[in-house]
Every structure is written in C-alpha cells, then in structure tokens.
Amino acid sequence: MVDHPAPGEVVWCDEAGVTCRRWNWRQARRTQLRDDTTAGLFILDALDPLTDEALHAAADDLVTHLSRLGPDVQVARRFVAAP
Length: 83
Hints:
Low-confidence stretches: none
Helix content: 10-25%
Number of helices: 1
Strand order of the largest sheet: 1-2-3
Number of strands: 3
Radius of gyration: 15 Å
Mean pLDDT: 85
Strand content: 5-15%
Shape: flat
Structural class: alpha+beta
Order of helices and strands: EEEH
C-alpha cells in the first residue's frame, strides 16, 4: 500500500523515500541505527507540559549514553526556542 502525504504535511525524506511523517519517526530497516552507523540526527521537541529544562535534561542524558559508545563520538547540539 502506498500512503502519500497530505498537501502541506511536513515530512522528512531522502532520495530513497519518506523517513518521517506527522512528526513521528517511521521505523524501518533502511533508516535504523546499527553498529556501523557513523552519523545520526536526534530531534527532541518539548510540548506543554514538558519544560525547556526537562528537554535539556533529556538531551544531556542522550549525549551521556551516546558518549559511552566510544571516544570518537562527536555531538553537536542546537536549541531552537519558540517564538
């Protein structure tokens, strides 16, 4: 079955297809993290009632766990505040 995005719907995609729709990650073998993964993008979003402080704490926890994978792990973070 082919399910096309609605007009105006936000999607994340690459040359091979849509990887995320309706702000939800789509689990798929093609985009899964594996032992040989060398780059990844994690988007954390804080919607009420989650606070910015809780969002930062979750990001810190993720970085802590990723850093345990090895000394070559590099992390870049960007915080985008609501207007």
